[in-house]
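ok so for the tutorial part 2 we go from a plain amino acid sequence to predicted structure tokens. step 1 is just haveing the sequence, like this:
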Amino acid sequence: MKLILTLEPYAKQVDPDKVLKDLELLGLKAVLDSLSREGEIVINIENLDNIYEVAKYVRNIEYICHIIELKSVIKINNTNNIIDLIVEEFDKILRTVPEKGRFKILCKRVDKKFPLTSVELCKIVGRRLEELGHVVDIHLPDMYLYVEIRRGIILLGWSPREVYHKVREVVPLHVVKNVVPIVLEPITLYEYMDLLQLARALGIELRIINFRGNASKMVEDACRKLRIDFPVNVKIVNLDNYDEGIDALIVLSQYSSRGDSYLREICKQLLLRNRRIGLVLGNEVEDVPVELREKAICEIRLGPMTGQPMRSTVAIAYAMGIIFNMFTIREIV
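step 2 — the prediction. this is what the tokens look like for a chain of 333 residues:
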């Protein structure tokens, strides 16, 4: 069995011999293939011929990202009808592999001079395969059909969805969407920049209370500095609508008496009932004012008693870590 193993971004420079040694330690006899390139190792497995069995071993190596069974290599020349050949090979794969379900085409265009873009090729080949009776599903396929276009050759392969991807520990999106940080209008540009980056990284909705009337301009300035568009998950709100759609407000403040354990307890109760939580914080120099505290169900102090406040971005990340840690699951992503 011939496999394509793609490497995680941090491991693209890994020596192929190391990959072979790590596989050998796991009990796999593998030989390096000349098709290997930077960030992508092609190997011949000598003692197994089932991709599911191989994956049980390979998934013990963290730096390996994707696993694909290489089915054929097409040589490109001026007389080849490339699309016809790709469709013919994929039709053969779809009719012979164990899975008979829905598929998605993945294309890696290493040779940028190839006349079709990756998206164009996927659309054309997918349409042709549908005409042959196969079913495309780009959102939740049962398998992937893999095309890699290099100079002079095209690699074609396949992989079941649960083999191609890693099973990773993640936070369910419904939990993420039910926790909303609400920050009193920051003063400095770097605070806005940190907040925007955190909101983008976690995929959370972030609300900024327009306390002084300058929030929109500061967010725009921060976006320009970061060279990003205005994030759709960042909302500028006022004192009369900052808690819209929120079921329970929790103030995060260094002056509160309750700590991390109470935050964990109250958030678990609320999230298990699918309630939406608003975490209310001050900015880099001002704590949460009294008028905002009055609407909260409780106040929480984060971390040890040092007498020093956390920056808003740090407090959000700290609180989210406590909350999300209760709900992590393992998913194919």
